[in-house]
């Protein structure tokens, strides 16, 4: 059996989905986390459960809402679980009344039952069930209560037949009936046809138009308003019969908002929080672990080298394992501690509800630059990874603004860029690595805003989206969920190190060890990689102040995965190593030319240039054409080159005083 | 209208209200039909009571309370919502 999970944004759908299916999909305490539908199998029951993006109505407003509506209408689910935020049933039941017009059984799961008391709300489930005419069960997806009851209701309702219920005043019901009888359609379609919905244009015959005109004259409103009003009238009526609300004093969220949304300290708090995120993930553990891990990797490499030599392994195979695989993969794995802390910070900020405040806070500023608060969602998701961030632009209604956000989202330093930032800042700005890392984040925001205003002024006149979003309540993050979220992301990073990075490390080792004539045991300068690098090193001259094929080939590899830049650099450093104390990458002959200024410039290039292939693929999908995608990455790379060259030359000029 | 303090019974736009004021919706006049429809779906229908709850530090957007939940909306859209002060 196929079951659809439908509900408003931020109603706890994904939490319930994870609970029922045992998987761990992403959850955030902000609207719009589920972007594409996801399918899982319900434990114990074996039915397929489809998690859909949150919707408020079956008249979609954004693309992601359309995904949900299309599935509910065309995907033919056998059963719908409608998850309802029990703390705001009046708005939530609006969608419910629409779902119940379809010919599918709807089960109402009243979620967040654990928070009803604090909000002074008392709901009589039985009464509500009787009034609305379907099964209602109180659950708390977070506290895991009511789940067994929900499952038994699902079991009971396999293959249940339903008949839609009349809920409006007779004046409207009569017209609906007329349309139904005339066109032989179900209740849902009849209402949509009356509303003149785009979906059913071919049904607009005279009798429908007459009915609509008659209603509009009677009510002195247009048809959409009449139906919305009468729907809410019905909901208020059943709500008053089955629920009691006590007004509560100022809630915890209101108190917290007095601080976090305070006129004077809201912005300082936001900046402090972002600094803290970078300080914790780069500054505190940063330089410490880089040295530590470099030491471990070197010792492990020496150990393996000895072992392999004792076993009688050939020179080249020992070098492949030690100088290629261990050096390359090890370099990336060294950043697991930093990433763990970054993921932890992001996860906490997302689940508490603070991220929603950030969009509320920055909307006006972003609007001045031609972006809306909604574009902040991809910019925040992008701290983790650009791929889901680019997909989350679907919540943006205006197409031009959406394209713009897709193009600018990769500028946000994603977690794979963190190793680059951490390594460079850890060495060159050891005492202020947290500060310098955070400066890159704010630099990225500044460039995003500047790019937005320039592109808008030049190419996109008169476009703009309204900003309509819920402000969820603050929640304490669930330790269990945050732990799993961080664990999953770290696992994904390690998996990449063991696959893509491993493959690239072997390739780089090969290109470094052999000449074009496939001779082994050559000087590094005669290797294939060096000759490739030498043909492109001039591109990087303006930002490095020197011709470095080593840095050039490493930066190009950022296309595969951003952390590959680090992996490549450490393999090359290993090959070029002079006999010296320690194996510090920046002391090797290949990279000792780096100064703090060229280090910053090189970071800027890696931060803004074309993202990895994964993100490029996502850009192509979401922009809808290869041409647009190519334009976007050309723009990004050109901008990166200009900015990096500027940083280097201005920096060098200033330091000459 | 800008500087006048609105009293009970005054007719105005939602954007004219100050924090803590309550009003009843009289009608919506938005140019974009999908946007109007979206606001209706979100519960801003004729007769709905709205409370101005929080205002963003830069003065926009505004967090309003209606039908037992909170919604963020910009002044630009609020200008197109007619209300009567309660």
* CATH level 1 name of chain B: Mainly Beta
**CATH architecture heading of the domain at 2-156 in chain A:** 3-Layer(aba) Sandwich
Largest interface, counted with CB-CB under 8 A?
A-B, 41 and 35 residues
The average pLDDT of chain A is 87
Structure description:
The complex is a heterodimer of chains A (657) and B (86). Chain A is an alpha/beta fold and 657 residues long. Among the domains of chain A are: 2-156, Rossmann fold, CATH 3.40.50.300; 170-245, Helix Hairpins (Orthogonal Bundle). Chain A is built from 27 helices and 9 strands. In chain A, the strands form 2 sheets. In chain A, strands 2-3-1-4-5-7 form a 6-stranded mixed β-sheet, sandwiched between helices. In chain A, strands 6-8 form a two-stranded antiparallel ribbon. In chain A, helix 3 (89-99) links the parallel strand 4 (79-85) and strand 5. In chain A, helix 3 crosses helix 9 and helix 26 (613-623) crosses helix 27. Chain A is elongated. Mean pLDDT of chain A is 87; it is low at 579-583. In chain B, a hairpin with a 2-residue loop joins strand 4 (62-66) and strand 5. The two termini of chain B are 17 Å apart. The mean pLDDT of chain B is 90. Chain B has a single domain, classed as SH3 type barrels, CATH 2.30.30.90. Chain B is globular. The relative contact order of chain B is 0.31. By secondary structure, chain B is α+β, with helices and mostly antiparallel strands. Chain B has a 6-stranded antiparallel β-sheet. The A-B interface holds A 56-57, 59, 61, 85, 87-91, 94, 221, 224-225, 228-229, 232, 245, 254, 257, 261-264, 266-267, 359-361, 363-365, 367, 373, 397, 466-471 and B 28, 32, 34-43, 45-48, 53-54, 56-61, 63, 67-74, 76-77.
């Amino acid at each position: 059996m196929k079951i659809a999970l439908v509900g408003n944004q931020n109603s706890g759908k994904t939490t319930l989905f994870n609970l029922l299916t045992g998987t761990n999909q992403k959850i955030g305490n902000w609207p719009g986390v589920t972007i594409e539908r996801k399918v899982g199998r319900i434990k114990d029951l074996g039915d397929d459960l489809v998690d859909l993006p949150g919707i408020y109505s079956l008249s979609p407003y954004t693309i992601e809402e359309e995904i949900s509506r299309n599935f509910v209408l065309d995907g033919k689910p056998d059963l719908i679980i409608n998850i309802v935020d029990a703390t705001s049933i009046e708005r939530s039941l609006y969608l419910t009344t629409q779902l119940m017009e379809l010919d599918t059984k709807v089960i109402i799961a009243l979620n967040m039952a654990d928070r009803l008391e604090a909000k002074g709300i008392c709901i009589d489930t039985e009464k509500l069930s009787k009034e609305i005419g379907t099964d209602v069960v109180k659950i708390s997806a977070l506290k895991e209560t009511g789940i067994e009851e929900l499952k038994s209701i699902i079991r009971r309702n396999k293959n249940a037949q339903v008949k839609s219920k009349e809920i409006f005043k007779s004046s409207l019901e009569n017209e609906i009936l007329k349309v139904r009888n005339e066109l032989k359609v179900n209740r849902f379609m009849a209402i949509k046809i009356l509303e003149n919905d785009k979906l059913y244009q071919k049904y607009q015959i005279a009798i429908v138009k007459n009915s609509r005109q008659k209603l509009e004259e009677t009510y002195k409103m247009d048809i959409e308003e009449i139906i919305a009003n009468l729907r809410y009238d019905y909901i208020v009526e059943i709500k008053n019969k089955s629920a009691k609300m006590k007004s509560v004093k100022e809630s915890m969220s209101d108190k917290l908002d007095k601080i976090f949304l305070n006129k004077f300290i809201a912005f300082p708090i936001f900046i402090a929080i972002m600094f803290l995120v970078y300080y914790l993930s780069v500054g505190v553990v940063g330089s410490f672990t880089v040295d530590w891990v470099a030491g471990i990797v070197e010792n492990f490499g020496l150990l393996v080298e000895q072992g392999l030599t004792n076993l009688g392994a050939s020179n080249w195979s020992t070098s492949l394992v030690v100088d290629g695989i261990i050096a390359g993969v090890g370099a990336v794995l060294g950043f697991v501690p930093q990433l763990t802390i970054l993921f932890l910070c992001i996860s906490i900020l997302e689940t508490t509800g603070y991220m929603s405040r950030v969009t509320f806070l920055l909307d006006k500023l972003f609007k001045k630059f031609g972006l809306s608060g909604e574009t902040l969602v991809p910019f925040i998701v992008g701290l983790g990874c650009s791929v889901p961030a680019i997909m989350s632009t679907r919540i943006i209604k205006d197409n031009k603004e959406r394209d713009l956000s897709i193009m600018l989202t990769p500028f946000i330093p994603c977690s794979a860029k963190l190793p680059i930032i951490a390594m460079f800042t850890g060495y060159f700005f050891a005492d202020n690595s947290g500060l310098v890392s955070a400066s890159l984040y704010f630099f990225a925001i500044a460039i995003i805003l500047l790019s937005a205003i320039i592109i808008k002024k030049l190419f996109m006149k008169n476009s703009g989206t309204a900003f309509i979003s819920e402000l969820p309540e603050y929640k304490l993050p669930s330790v269990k969920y945050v732990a799993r979220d961080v664990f999953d992301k770290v696992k994904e990073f390690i998996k990449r190190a063991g696959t893509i990075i491993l493959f690239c490390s072997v390739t780089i080792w090969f290109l470094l060890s052999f000449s074009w004539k496939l001779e082994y045991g050559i000087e590094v300068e005669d290797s294939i990689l060096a000759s490739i690098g030498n043909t492109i090193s001039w591109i990087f001259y303006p930002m490095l102040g020197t011709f470095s094929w080593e840095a050039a080939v490493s930066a190009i590899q950022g296309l595969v995965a951003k952390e590959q830049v680090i992996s490549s650099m450490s393999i090359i450093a290993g090959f070029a190593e002079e006999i010296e104390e320690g194996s510090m990458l920046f002391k090797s002959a290949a990279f000792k030319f780096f100064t703090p200024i060229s280090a910053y410039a090189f970071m800027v290039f890696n931060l803004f240039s074309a993202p990895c292939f994964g993100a490029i693929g996502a850009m192509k999908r979401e922009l809808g054409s290869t041409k647009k995608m190519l334009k976007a990455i050309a723009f990004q790379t050109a901008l990166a080159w200009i900015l990096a060259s500027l940083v280097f030359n201005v920096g060098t000029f200033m330091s000459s005083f | 209208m800008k500087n006048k303090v609105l009293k009970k019974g005054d007719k105005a736009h939602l954007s004219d209200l100050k924090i803590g004021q309550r009003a009843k919706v009289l009608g919506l006049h938005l140019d974009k039909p999908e946007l109007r429809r979206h606001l209706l779906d979100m519960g801003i229908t004729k007769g709905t009571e709205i409370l101005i709850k929080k205002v963003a530090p830069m003065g926009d957007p505004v967090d309003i309370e209606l039908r037992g939940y909170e919604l963020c909306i910009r002044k630009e859209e609020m200008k197109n919502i007619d209300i009567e002060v309660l």
